[in-house]
């Protein structure tokens, strides 16, 4: 799959896990009050690795790498509140709320810090937010084509409205996903609060294969236009986190699926 901006593909992905009930046999649950989270856990000696998926995905985006990742450490792959089989109590999906829940989940699940965080797309933005708030609990961060808190504003200033997230697209999404995509301003408030990003090892792997963005079969951004826009955002995140940047990924948005050897090379580099 070549790169398509995540909020333009979540509509098709919301129903992509029809085998959810069967796959739940490989998951566990943990509760915090009325909240219940589903997660996959592979216990192994080594560091604690924590995975967060993108918008419209679930923890099953990682199923093809469960076994191999499990050899690297104590692995936790979760469904955020309102995603997959995890509950959602209706609380706004702000940066503070999501990272508080992430911390509560890890505590309840018995995960031992410091953590190596692995985040894809929106999960990458969550990983940055968690590291910003809880730096003492983070050992390193691997970001897979991560989202940027200003991406929609930049999109609207670069392309016509139909190329970007708008109210019409939001109304077609499930409520929890709609809420996640409606609170990027809260991530901006956190990430641009005047304090620097913590001094942590960070690697960003960016997509370098793009396709034209279409809306109702009409091209609203060419592949080159979209790629230039997206890579500018990625470079800003590299500067912000002082990250090692892998740009020649030979991959679209799903780097952990499309270039699995590169993904494991960079993950092992952080684990060592």
Furnish the topology, listing elements before pairings.
Elements: H1 6-13, H2 20-23, E1 28-32, E2 35-42, E3 48-52, H3 66-70, E4 74-78, H4 95-109, E5 115-120, H5 122-133, E6 138-144, H6 151-158, H7 167-171, H8 175-180, H9 184-191, E7 202-205, E8 213-215, E9 218-221, H10 223-241, E10 244-246, H11 255-258, H12 260-271
Parallel strand pairs: 3-4, 3-5, 5-6, 6-7, 7-10
Antiparallel strand pairs: 1-2, 2-4, 8-9
Structure, described:
It is globular and about 50 Å long. The chain is built from twelve helices and ten strands. A hairpin with a 2-residue loop joins strand 8 (213-215) and strand 9. The strands form two sheets. Strands 1-2-4-3-5-6-7-10 form an eight-stranded mixed sheet, with helices on both faces. With 272 residues, it is α/β, with parallel strands linked by helices. The longest helix is centred in the C-terminal third of the chain and has 19 residues, at 223-241. Helix 4 (95-109) packs across helix 5 (122-133). It has one domain (6-271): Rossmann fold (3-Layer(aba) Sandwich), CATH 3.40.50. Helices cover 39% and strands 18% of the residues.
Short description:
The protein is built from 12 helices and 10 strands. The protein is of the alpha/beta class and 272 residues long.
Helix content: 25-40%
**DSSP E strands, number:** 10
In DSSP terms (H or I, runs of 4 or more residues), the helix count works out at 12
- Our Rg estimate from Cα atoms comes to 17 Å
Strand/helix succession: HHEEEHEHEHEHHHHEEEHEHH
Strand content: 15-25%
């Amino acid at each position: 799959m070549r790169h398509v901006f995540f909020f333009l593909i979540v509509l098709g992905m919301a129903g992509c896990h029809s085998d959810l009930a069967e796959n739940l046999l490989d998951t566990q649950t943990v509760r915090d009050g009325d909240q219940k989270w589903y997660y996959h856990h592979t216990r192994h000696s080594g560091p604690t690795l924590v995975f967060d998926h993108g918008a419209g995905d679930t923890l099953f985006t990682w199923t093809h790498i469960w076994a191999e990742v499990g050899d690297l450490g104590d692995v936790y792959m979760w469904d955020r509140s309102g995603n997959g089989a995890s509950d959602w109590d209706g609380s706004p999906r702000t940066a503070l709320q999501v990272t508080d829940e992430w911390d509560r989940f890890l505590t309840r699940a018995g995960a031992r810090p410091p953590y190596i965080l692995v985040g894809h797309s929106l999960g990458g933005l969550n990983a940055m937010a968690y590291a910003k708030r809880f730096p003492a609990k983070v050992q390193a961060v691997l970001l897979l084509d991560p989202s940027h808190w200003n991406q929609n504003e930049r999109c609207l200033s670069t392309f016509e409205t139909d190329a970007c997230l708008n109210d019409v697209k939001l109304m077609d999404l499930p409520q929890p996903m709609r809420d996640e995509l409606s609170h990027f301003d809260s991530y901006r408030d956190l990430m641009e609060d005047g304090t620097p990003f913590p001094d942590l090892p960070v690697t960003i792997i960016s997509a370098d294969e793009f396709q034209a963005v279409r809306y109702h079969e009409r091209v609203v951004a060419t592949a080159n236009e979209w790629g230039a826009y997206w890579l500018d955002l990625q470079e800003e995140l590299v500067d912000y986190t002082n990250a090692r940047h892998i740009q020649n990924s030979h991959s679209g948005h799903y780097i952990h699926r499309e270039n699995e050897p590169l993904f494991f090379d960079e993950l092992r580099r952080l684990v060592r």
